[in-house]
Specification:
The complex is a heterodimer of chains A (342) and B (158).
Chain A lengths: L1 H7 L1 H5 L6 H18 L11 H24 L6 H25 L5 H25 L3 H10 L6 H10 L12 E6 L2 E5 L7 E8 L2 E5 L4 E8 L2 E17 L2 E15 L2 E6 L4 E3 L4 E5 L2 E3 L2 H7 L13 E2 L11 E3 L9 E3 L5
Parallel strand pairs in A: 1-3, 2-4, 3-5, 4-6, 5-6, 6-7, 7-8, 7-9, 8-10, 9-12, 10-13, 11-14
Helix pairs in contact in A: 4-5, 4-6, 5-6
Chain B lengths: L2 H12 L1 E8 L5 H8 L13 E8 L2 E8 L3 H4 L11 E7 L6 H12 L8 E7 L9 H7 L11 E5 L1
Parallel strand pairs in B: 1-3, 1-4, 4-5, 5-6
Antiparallel strand pairs in B: 2-3
Classes of the chains: A alpha/beta (342), B alpha/beta (158).
Chain lengths: 342, 158
Amino acid sequence: MEGEEDLSNPNKTLDPTYSHPKHTAMLERLSNRKQPFLSRNPDSHPFESTNSFLSRFSQSKHSIDSDLTRCRQSTDPDSKSTLKSDLEAVSISISDLEKLVAENSYFLPSYEVRTCLQTISSLKQSLENVTSEVFPKKKFAFKSKKASSGVLDKTEIENHDVDLEKPSFIVPDLPGFRNMENEVLVKEFKGSEMGEFSISDLNSCEVRLTGCLRAIFIHRLKNCKVYTGPVFGSVLIEEVEGCVFVLASHQIRVHHARASDFYLRVRSRPIIEDCSGVRFAPYCLSYDGIERDLKESNLDEETGNWANVDDFKWLKAVQSPNWEILPESESVGGVTILNSDK
Amino acid sequence: MGLLSIIRKIKRKEKEMRILMVGLDNSGKTTIVLKINGEDTSVISPTLGFNIKTIAYNKYTLNIWDVGGQRTIRSYWRNYFEQTDGLVWVVDSSDLRRLDDCKFELHNLLKEERLSGASLLIFANKQDIQGALSPDEITKVLNLEALDKTRHWENYWL
């Protein structure tokens, strides 16, 4: 066994003292075979040494890093379009770098290959981060709106437009009150027009809706008071701050509300999500004919559900810190809409 | 167990369909399921978690998984993808402001490999509300024409 291995050992055949015409021919063949490999285009495999590869790698990494920082810091809205192509260029350099590692992996120690690949994946991650920072996706825009306390600023709108694909269809507006300040907004719903209503982008307004409604969408209110008659379907409230709501509905969902009070009558359990400092109390609206409207909407009975709030951000048995029951001493007591107010 | 009984069992299994109902919160998923099942829909709280309903239809047994749509729990949808035969995407046709959200979540969902074999039904709910978009308009807004051509999808409304 050992002898056989010795015979097949190529080192033995390379021994110069061991010369046989057959072996000389083989040596020649072997050296010829090595020739084309060494004389290959030096550009494709310029390193063959770990050190020179690593220095080239870290050089590219640094230039990509600095490109990314530049993209992140650029705030000029006019440069949006160039920014996009810049980011694409960065993405191409990253994949070039990846290719470089792959091409040279045959001689690199496996530890170096692993670290290089890790570096590349972290580069990809930071490219993704920068891209989503500079061109926020819908989801990110939503979160940042919350931070801007309900008022959408201009740059956000611009980012948003860049991000949207060309709409193939223009969505019409719902009937509603929007974009107003310091106003008293009144609407009476008669039985035949039991539609839906949207209330959005109001600042320091008072909204009074009487009669039955099918659904209400409330979005981005600040320091407003909203009083409504019974809603047969659902109410969706998003991004409000410093508001008072007096609502009766079959379903109520509240998202991203801060420091607001809700006086509710609701058939099911109201829910909150991403809210803080919200307080709940029983419904206390009265106007001429509200008893009939409540009965018609199947909301004439007090279910006590106004206090059964489910917080989707607090799925624990103990009371959520995000909401509380409004102390009676701080309650408005009752809200009456007089006929002359309507 | 004889061969015959094994075959019978497989046959019975084939008649069992797993249907996943998803969509944004407030789109009416639970209401639809209860309505189809002929149950009372007057008191429905927003779904915290999920409901399962088994409905017999034409010799088929439909296991309907109705999963809550609040933003916080949307990330749990993927726990229900396995072995889904039918996907029902419910749209609140009157919630015009969040249609972009709806489109984003739907297209996100359809990237999921585990759902690639499932038939898709787009349910344009709340057509009775004044101002709601028609199913054709919903098709356009959600960009359904751009969907993978290999998928079988259908638009439906009540």
